[in-house]
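task queued by scheduler; priority normal; single chain, no ligands, no partner chains; default sampling; output format set to structure tokens
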Amino acid sequence: MRGKVAVVGVGMIKFGELFEKSLETMIQEAYLNCLKNVDKGIDPGEIKAAWFGQWSGGFIGQGTQSGHSLTSMIGNRNIPCTRLENACPTGGDTFRHACLGVASGLYDVVLALGAEKMRDKPSAESLGGAGGGGGAETGSHPAWMIGQGGPAIQAMHATRQMYQLGYTMEDFARVAVKNHHNGSFCPFAHYQFDITLERVLNSPIICWPLHLFDCCPQTDGAAAAIVCRADLASKYSNKPVYVLGSHVGNDHNQLWDRSSFVEQLSTVKAAKGAFEMAGVKPRDVDFAELHDCFTNTELMNIEDVGFVPKGEAAARLKNGEFDMQGPLPINPSGGLKAHGHPIAATGLGQIYEVVTQLREEADKRQVKLKNGIGLQHNVGGPAFGVAVVNILSRSL
């Protein structure tokens, strides 16, 4: 894929509790924003295929969705479109499939779009299919998966991180403080306010040792990217961003098969494959958008991607290394913790941030670029058994 694919436009809407907007409206706004973002302009008719990321489908009241649902919503029924679902990495994997469509030589210009309407039903109901929250009651998972929702699984990881690595609830809370601060500068973030360490630690326990403010919010949102052949990128943009590497990693989806609770092997595999394809190392990355669905998860991801050795992320966070103006900014957008997590839109929202940063158009949250390389990462699914990593660069 390296050298074959470029991003020439990205678009998204503000994430949040968007009760006033339909799924169709969210998708259309993100799509139109994406078209406007192509600085040299683009005829929508030049888009020859699309991938539609949508995790929830019909089970939270959005109706039955398929690929042709997207083409109808954007007014282009003449192109092939595939609906893709891959748990929490749905957005990142939707982007990956769009890139593969171009890298294969099949298409010159394609669209990747992800959208999710999470707030139209109560949280327990809309997340019932995510990991056992509804379990046998909804028929979405076998009985042995009941209780394996995100907070319970990550609480297991967090307690093991505390026991094996010496991490504390204060270490986890610092992730929330950092990401809320970053999110206060992001116009697309669900939460745009600062938070203190004390407020995190005094918030209600959701699943020990994770507090309310250790958990990302459930959110509505939509985001999109236009991908084209690298040799055509200058036709559409003065600031194209190139895709260097992309990979999906898998692990067991049963917790009892896990060999470790201080790492997620799916992320390790996804990062290894993406770095090998890109031909770069973790030390070459200037900043990263990592999947911080819970605060302890960000620390684990920093280590699993390969940025620091296992057990060092908490100390380096405390020293400011992952701050917006630190040597390795993590989640300058505010991450899922402040940005929110509209599942299929999350990864594409992260792609939006990576592209915007590499173009140096991120305003007050702009990070310092050395090599001009950014990384996007998602992890999720039953027992967090699937992950995706995409590596982008402002040059070839």
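post-processing summary
- The domain at 5-127+216-393 is CATH 3.40.47.10 (Peroxisomal Thiolase; Chain A, domain 1).
- Residues 202 and 211 are 8 Å apart (CA to CA).
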